[in-house]
Amino acid sequence: MDWTLVAQKIVLAFMTATFAIGSFFSFVVAPILFKTLPKEQAGKVVERVFPLYFGLCLGLDALSLLAVFKANVGFILILILILTITLNAIQLYVIIPESREKKKTDYKGFLKLHKISVTLNMSVVILNLLGVLYLIFKPF
After folding, report:
1. Residue 46 domain flag
2. Nearest 10 degrees: CA dihedral of 3, 7, 8, 9?
3. Contact at 8 Å (CB) between 124 and 87?
4. 43 vs 36, 61, 107, CA distance in Å?
5. CB-based burial label for 135 (10 Å; 0-12, 13-18, 19+)
6. Is the pTM of the predicted complex or chain greater than 0.85?
7. What is the pLDDT of residues 90-136, one digit of tens each?
8. How many separate domains does the chain show?
């Protein structure tokens, strides 16, 4: 069995999953919630789901990083994964707790954190897409 090929497929599967989950949540779930529920209720749902979402993406990219060392796919993918893991960790352990506090006491501050969060989230989605495309089109 070619373990390098298996590792490449694992990295491709996990990065594809992270890209798909991020896209689905960002472009389908969140907009539907805010269009169908009152703003406050939608916000409460998103508040509960975001930690799970960022944790899942963090976990998938961390598993990808473990597999990438066996996959022999190049240094660029290691950098992409380190960056996505870092961005998801910032979201999960810094932005979410801070935004919960700001939402109660400083709504303008909360909105600023929300913009940062959206930017970081879109960066993770795009970086995972770039990783997937790299894996698909780079000849090994």
Report:
1. yes
2. 100
3. yes
4. 12, 26, 13
5. buried
6. yes
7. 999 999 999 999 988 999 999 999 999 999 999 999 999 999 999 99
8. 1
